[in-house]
Design the sequence.
């Protein structure tokens, strides 16, 4: 069987699915265009690849997956789209989610109405899709992302470290991920070391300006480099205003961290 795999393999969870599927099937990968000019030829390229495959498998309900779903339907191929969170969300308070604007609502709604199967990483996303896309949801199933226990595992002695990991380079992401709350919490626990990983640019500068001496801010790290931090930390904070199934939380808990959330 030949699968058209639509997604960005630089994302960890997308790469993981790609690696699993290619062990068992022939894979023809379709990456989202990086430049505006590439979008002109993108639908035709997708059309040719879908015509020669048996199944379409894509990550996220957006403009990059819509042509694949359209042509799969046209040529009688089965289609599957995995939803991560943003593509099901409507959070107007922070202007977050595909359903907060017409540009992203169009492909998301089209996909939910025409794809054969929608896979959500958390049951709450099914409820969101039904509500925001106004669909019945009969084609939506829950399938969480998986984590390798041979990689994400406790090792060594835990230290008095409170950790959070979040990708943020602007103030909108700071608010979405609850990072200001994390930084302020460090001020109340001066004897513990707080570590924030993944922030850069405007977000990093803002958080550094309000941080205390017991907080260390680190930029992006690879999964390999993240592992020792999970293994050393006693506590992991997930303070986001909204999540699907947060990979970092699952990774941290697999490494023996105590999870802490916020009352949102």
Sequence:
């Amino acid at each position: 069987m030949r699968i058209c795999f639509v997604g960005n393999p630089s994302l960890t969870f997308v790469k993981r699915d790609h690696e699993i599927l290619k062990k068992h099937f022939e894979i023809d990968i379709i990456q989202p265009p990086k430049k505006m000019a590439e979008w002109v030829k993108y639908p035709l390229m997708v059309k040719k690849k879908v015509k020669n495959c048996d199944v379409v498998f894509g990550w996220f309900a957006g403009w990059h997956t819509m042509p694949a779903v359209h042509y799969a339907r046209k040529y009688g191929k089965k289609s599957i789209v995995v939803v991560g969170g943003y593509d099901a969300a409507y959070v107007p308070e922070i202007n977050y989610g595909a359903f907060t604007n017409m540009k992203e609502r169009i492909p998301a709604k089209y996909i939910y109405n025409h794809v054969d199967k929608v896979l959500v990483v958390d049951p709450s996303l099914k409820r969101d899709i039904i509500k925001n896309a106004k669909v019945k949801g009969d084609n939506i199933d829950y399938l969480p992302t998986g984590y390798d226990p041979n990689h994400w595992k406790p090792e060594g002695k835990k230290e008095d470290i409170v950790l959070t990991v979040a990708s943020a380079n602007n103030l909108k992401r700071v608010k979405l991920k609850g990072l200001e709350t994390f930084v302020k919490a460090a001020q109340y626990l001066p004897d513990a070391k707080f570590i924030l990983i993944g922030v850069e640019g405007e977000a990093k500068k803002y958080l550094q300006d309000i941080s205390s001496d017991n907080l260390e801010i680190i930029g992006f790290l690879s999964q390999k480099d993240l592992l020792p931090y999970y293994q050393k930390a006693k506590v992991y904070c997930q303070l986001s205003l909204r999540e699907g199934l947060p990979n970092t939380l699952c990774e941290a808990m697999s490494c023996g961290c105590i999870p802490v959330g916020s009352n949102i």
